[in-house]
């Protein structure tokens, strides 16, 4: 290729814009052509000279500060692109809180229903002409009576040297499941102890220190059974019976 | 400087635009040849860019976008309206000028001092000055320059060639007069 044609490509060569193949061929040509090589060197020097000369105007610091303050957006607007995410997160939090609140509300409601039903059972038993179906103060009589009537068994405490007397027992029903109701007496107060299977209740049976209509109530679970103690005695006496039942 | 979409989404305008401030100011000063006008031009550029940032297409060249705004502002200014038509006339006049008309050995650019080159760039018509600065100072590719000033790559190449050719002529004249 004639030097004139190569020189048309020298600008693109020094700018790094020449196609790779042309660049290689031109480089070979520059090795052999002193005139074109000098021209290429001249253009490269001019390029450097322009680069140095062009970098000369510097903004005033006050103007820089002015632009920076005019351009800098407040923190809240910087978050603008995140608003949909923030909104979604907020909505998720609201839904979660609502779900938790609803769950707690229904849980509380179910517990209240359970307490009410237990109170009803206790009051109904005492109001009955025959509050117990098995009348005995002997635990070895009362406990076997439940065999075949409920699908579980339980232990009764030894009440000797305690202020409590076992009156007897009867079958009680909760959520259409049979359970045991034991009636104890302390002074002139009757206390019912209900025993149901945990699986029959379909809910948490912890009602510790609950009260309803001035009845005191305590509960616990053990070995798949839920125990509820309810009566109109003071909480201390109720706690003593609970201790005895747990022993 | 193509900005990925994810980066634009996560970065604010200031994160992208403020690093360009010094260069934009330098370029504006070269165009206007005046500090006050350069400051006005840069300020207007940032104001318009900030206002239109939502219309900036992620994945495209943010630097080219900023320079395009600055250049359009300049072209619409009194100085720009005055400079560009002259520059176009100049380009017509010099269409037949060859970049290789000068003999490199006689120009001796290697010995040029910065002040001489500075004066020569100042004398260049704006239409050539801008492509020269984009290419040499901003180190933009031909394609990037074409996108910035909105002309085909071939036009960029011919303007660059004429700019360098003109610069040589001016430098030689300045050397002769010096």
What report would you give on this structure?
With 247 residues, chain A is α+β, with helices and mostly antiparallel strands. Chain A has helices at residues 3-8, 10-14, 20-32, 34-54, 61-71, 75-78, 83-127, 139-145, 198-201, 235-246; strands spanning 134-135, 164-174, 177-186, 189-197, 210-212, 215-222, 225-231. A seven-stranded antiparallel β-sheet of chain A has the order 1-2-3-4-7-6-5, sandwiched between helices. Chain B is mostly helical. Chain A binds chain B through residues 4, 7-8, 11-12, 15, 17, 38-39, 41-43, 45-47, 49-60, 63-64, 66-68, 70-73, 78, 81, and chain B through 9-10, 12-14, 17-18, 21-22, 25-26, 29-30, 35, 38-39, 42-43, 46-47, 50, 99-100, 104-105, 107, 109-110, 112, 114-115, 117-118, 121, 132-133, 135-137, 141-142, 157, 160-161, 164, 167-168.
Please write the CATH class name of the largest domain in chain B.
Mainly Alpha
Kindly provide the radius of gyration of chain B, computed on alpha-carbon positions and rounded to a whole number of angstroms: 17 Å
Q: In terms of per-residue confidence, which ranges of chain B show pLDDT below 50 for 5 or more consecutive residues?
A: 86-90, 92-110
Given the C-alpha coordinates, what overall shape of chain B results?
Answer: globular
How many beta-strand segments of chain B? Answer: 0
CATH architecture of the largest domain in chain B: Orthogonal Bundle
Secondary structure blueprint with pairings:
The complex is a heterodimer of chains A (247) and B (178).
Chain A: H1 3-8, H2 10-14, H3 20-32, H4 34-54, H5 61-71, H6 75-78, H7 83-127, E1 134-135, H8 139-145, E2 164-174, E3 177-186, E4 189-197, H9 198-201, E5 210-212, E6 215-222, E7 225-231, H10 235-246
Antiparallel strand pairs in A: 1-2, 2-3, 3-4, 4-7, 5-6, 6-7
Chain B: H1 5-10, H2 13-17, H3 21-32, H4 35-51, H5 62-76, H6 78-93, H7 104-107, H8 114-123, H9 126-137, H10 142-149, H11 153-177
């Amino acid at each position: 290729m004639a030097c004139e044609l190569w020189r048309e490509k020298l600008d693109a060569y020094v700018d790094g814009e020449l196609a790779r193949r042309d660049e290689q061929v031109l480089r070979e040509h520059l090795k052999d052509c002193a005139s074109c090589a000098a021209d290429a060197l001249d253009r490269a020097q001019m390029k450097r000279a322009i680069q140095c000369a062009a970098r000369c105007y510097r903004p005033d610091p006050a103007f820089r500060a002015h632009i920076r303050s005019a351009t800098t957006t407040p923190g809240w607007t910087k978050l603008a692109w995140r608003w949909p995410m923030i909104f979604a997160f907020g909505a998720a939090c609201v839904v979660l809180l609502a779900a938790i609140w609803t769950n707690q509300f229904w849980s509380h409601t179910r517990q209240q229903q359970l307490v009410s039903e237990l109170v009803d059972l206790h009051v109904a038993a005492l109001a009955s002409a025959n509050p117990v179906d098995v009348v005995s103060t002997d635990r070895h009589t009362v406990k076997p009576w439940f065999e075949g009537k409920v699908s579980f068994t339980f232990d009764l405490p030894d009440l000797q040297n305690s202020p409590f007397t076992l009156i007897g027992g009867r079958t009680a029903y909760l959520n259409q499941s049979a359970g045991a109701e034991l009636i104890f007496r302390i002074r002139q107060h009757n206390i019912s102890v209900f025993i149901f299977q945990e699986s029959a209740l379909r809910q948490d049976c912890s009602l510790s220190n609950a009260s309803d209509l001035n009845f005191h109530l305590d509960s616990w679970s053990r070995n798949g059974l839920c125990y509820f103690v309810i009566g109109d005695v003071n909480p201390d006496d109720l706690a003593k019976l609970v201790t005895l039942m747990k022993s | 400087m193509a900005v990925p979409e994810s980066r634009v989404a996560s970065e604010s305008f200031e994160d992208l635009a403020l690093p360009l401030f010094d260069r934009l100011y330098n370029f504006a000063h070269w165009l206007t040849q005046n500090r006050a006008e350069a400051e006005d031009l840069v300020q207007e550029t940032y104001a318009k860019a900030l206002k239109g940032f939502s219309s900036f297409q992620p994945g495209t060249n943010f630097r080219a976008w900023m320079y395009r705004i600055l250049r359009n502002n300049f072209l619409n200014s009194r100085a720009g309206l005055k400079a560009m038509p002259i520059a176009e006339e100049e380009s017509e006049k010099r269409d037949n000028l060859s970049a290789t008309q000068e003999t490199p050995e006689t120009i001796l650019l290697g010995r040029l001092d910065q002040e001489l080159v500075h004066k020569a760039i100042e004398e260049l018509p704006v239409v050539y000055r801008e492509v020269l600065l984009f290419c040499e100072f901003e180190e933009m590719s031909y394609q990037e320059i074409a996108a910035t000033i909105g002309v085909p790559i071939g036009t960029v190449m011919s303007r660059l060639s004429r700019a360098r050719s003109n610069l040589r002529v001016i430098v030689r004249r300045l050397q002769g007069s010096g």
